[in-house]
User: Fold this.
Amino acid sequence: MSKKVRVRFAPSPTGPLHIGGVRTALFNYLFAKKHGGDFILRIEDTDQNRYVEGAEKYIIDALNWCGIPFDESPEKPKDKFGPYRQSERKELYKVYADELIEKGKAYYAFDTTEILDFHRKDHEVKGKTFIYNWHNRLKLDNSLSLMPEEVEKRLASGVDYVIRFLTKPDEKVPLNDIIRGKMEIDSNVLDDKVLFKSDGMPTYHLANIVDDHLMEISHVIRGEEWLPSLALHQQLYDAFGWDAPEFAHLPLIMKPVGKGKLSKRDGEKGGFPVFPLSWNESVGYKETGYFPEAVVNFLALLGWNPGTEQELFSLTELIETFSLERVNKSGARFDPDKTKWYNEQYMQSRNDAELASRFLTELQEYSDVKERSRTPEYVAQVVSLIKERATFVSDFWPLSDYFFVSPSKYNEKATKKQWKEGTADIMNQLLEVLITQTDFTSETLETNVKSWINEKELAFGKVMPPLRLVLVGDMKGPHIFDIIGIIGKEETVSRIERAIAVLG
Ligand code: GLU
Assistant:
């Protein structure tokens, strides 16, 4: 690659960033970093009607959370290339629109919305589609159909007008996409898109091309939904006489089942997040308890394949391995279960101390937890035993509450099965054994209790299951001696005594 790699993520601040948008940003980031290039945030806010307060901050917060920082952004401008919000570059675009008019590559159009609507409907009735192009532009109200004096008069009078691109008929527009290869579009099917609006603002198309050029963008990596605009963009570069960047259109992220792209509604129906961070009533990946590394990892594999069986990638590994050539053409099916699997993997690799500190924060909600079990050491021991069963930190409490509070009730079915005549007697005997133990660590205790069971010729099934019921309140949980080792002698004894008293 001869040119310095500069890529941009160019969202419109019209609401929260969908995870599809995060994936686009991620692929841009990976590509930039792989090639020692720059990753730029440009806010495309030319459509003032769709502007949503807080959306820009949301985009930045979301990508910060994911750990994919920008080299340049509205907050981190570089003089030569800024400003990074299109609304602040407003003055610039008119000059370029005028340049196209001068070159005869664009023209003024005065048609009112009512007239255009009329044509659209009229065509529809006849089973046709109205396209503003070579086919009918001379029958419409524009600087190609009107006399020059009339055009001058209208412009001077201040009536509303737009500037349209003049698409040449009968041309084959050659296009190239890194993922899809070469394509050719028949210019006769293209319409003369509006480049500049009557409100003095450019449309997306003009602003996008001008900015990509001025910001020296080398590669445009964006969602597949922009592929239909590529022919116009290519023609615009040609009209200005500029070299176009290279293009890569990423495949759509598809619904978990059925046709169509993943939507907010799919998330609501399936109970999974579609936004990185919460936005109003929609809960985000962060707030659900996902680790950002897990989100980055599963997003990277939505549409890109490393060519190997490897599924777990750190960000550094992704940067090393990523290539646009290995991005698939076809849509990537979103699998909510797989996203959980990823979180579970990252849960296992997290160290216990860090998880314990998160869990400690959650434990503040539970006032009946004793102070002595609120220490980082105690909580880390618990976490090490239960994390393999957890998807999120929020699963820790239901998986481990009995480490912190003695069971308030005993599972009925399990009690029926495990607490028989004679159980209380066995538990009393066990109590005596436990009280005399000086070493309460899991392994020693296990050896001693097991040799006591053998000595007394008791059945394991008569001792161990009721003991679990007594300590946990249910038949769940990790190795019983690990539990005893953590809750300690005093607590173990008191739980057994209490069960004998309650269950008799
Ligand atoms: N503003 C467009 C969007 O919202 C950017 C498309 C592009 O990257 O060219 O997705």
